[in-house]
Amino acid sequence: MRDGIEASSDRGERSAAAPRFGLCCTFLVEPIRFRTTTATFVSTLPARERNRHLRRIALHNAATLVEAVEWCAAHGIGAYRVKSQLLPLLTHPVFGYELAALDTRGEVEKALRKARKLAARRQLRLSFHPDQFVVLGSANEAVVRSSVAELDAQAVVAELIGAEQLTIHGGGAQDGKRAALERLARGIDRLSGRARTRLALENDDRIYTVRDLLPVCDRQGVPLVYDVHHHRCNPDGLDEREATDAAGATWGKREAWVHLSSPSGGWKAATPRHHADYIDARDVPASWRGRRITIDVEAKAKELAVLALKGRWPARTAAGPRRVDRPRAPSG
Predict the structure, then answer these.
(1) H helices then E strands: how many in the chain?
(2) What count of Cα atoms within 13 Å lies in the side-chain half-sphere of residue 327?
(3) Domain residue spans of the chain
(4) What's the pLDDT tens digit per position in 104-127?
(5) pTM for the full model?
(6) At the fourth CATH level, which superfamily is domain 8-311?
(7) pLDDT by residue (tens digit) across 157-191?
């Protein structure tokens, strides 16, 4: 256990040729559905009914998380990315709430802990990927404060369910990358212990590359999630094996996490950043074969795409890196 994080990734044995595949957030055909709500709707409710409404959704979503974990475990899927809005409006400036105050009978917490125990028993890794409005390196102090609050709140939920990480992007590059990355490092220092121990950075497809983020990861002791699709759209001179090795080293003894997707219109599309329904086997980096890694499959066909990739692994992989030489964002 690492600072309260159950290291389910390090238990049990798996074939070196078979990575752990991850499903992201929602299901396409399975009748496993999370509920949500909006501040606009909640604002129309009397205070008492508002709390009942939010409690019902929280209890439904906690039970649905148990279903999702059970389904993944039953189908040999080794990781699951939990919806960041598992508890809708948790940190809303007007309608936000403390789970203990909302869940007075402890039913929601009980269901969340059930998901944690099941995931640990079935060696299923759980994670969160907070929304894009979380920008620790923003030049706007209000944005940084709200980002810290969001990550700290999600870390509380992550602790309840045993989620190992909160993955964020570097954010914007106001005043240039160097200044923005310094702000990012300072923002990381403002997180609670439970949030910081779960934080991971991810290279993006427009601004921050693997090479950009590695110094921050090394300095702050934060692991880097390598997204190969983003790397192909936003190259930095590292080839895919080098990037995989460098990102993997930031995880220490833990199993590294990577992201995989294919472009919906192919690599020659005007905008190859959008995700396809399924993974093209040629987009699986050859250097990933035989590695002990967790691969989050970011595909619109959701569980169908994960099962399809898992079923044909080891897939026919790309002979070399599939780069997209597109205009890069200004380096600042």
Answers:
(1) 11, 8
(2) 4
(3) 8-311
(4) 999 999 999 999 999 999 999 999
(5) 0.90
(6) Divalent-metal-dependent TIM barrel enzymes (3.20.20.150)
(7) 999 999 999 999 999 999 999 999 999 999 999 99
